[in-house]
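Researcher: Here's a chain I'd like modeled. Treat it as a single chain, no partners, no ligands.
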Amino acid sequence: MRKTTAGLFISLDGVTESPNEWQFDHFDEGMAAEMTAFERETDTILLGRVTYEEWAPYWPTSTDEPFATFINETPKHVVSTTLEKPLEWSNSMLVEGNLAEEISELKQKPGKNIGVAGSPTLLRSLLLNDLLDELTLMVHPVVVGSGKRLFDGGGDTKRLELADSKTTRTGVSILTYRPKK
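Model: Modeled as a single isolated chain. Structure tokens:
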């Protein structure tokens, strides 16, 4: 069965918003390798509305390779209650029904992992509803101070176990967690 996985840039103080403003000076070969591995193991992307609206105008004309080709060619399932069909970005489809049922159906289909890209609100919802199999946080050695945080309170306690950890040359801690059984 396929896994639902997520990877996210995050600051020491838990901020996930606008990583383009604080993460590029830490982007090194270790992070590139991690992202390339994520791509190699993923053939379906889940996006939340905000990430979709930020990425749809950028990626179709981007030359940021190898990421642009992967993001543009991979099927994208967009979770939103406010967007309407048809979605303009190629290979994008709107998730209209129950999210848990959609994830369950996707996991039953043959293929590689289902990867959540960006989308901290969606990621939090998947985690709190036991729909996420693996979470990789790329913790940057920076305190942003303000901005949207991955965990902003609310919800039940979720226990995770550390499955892997590494530190890149620029001090980014790459921590992979799985739900504790």
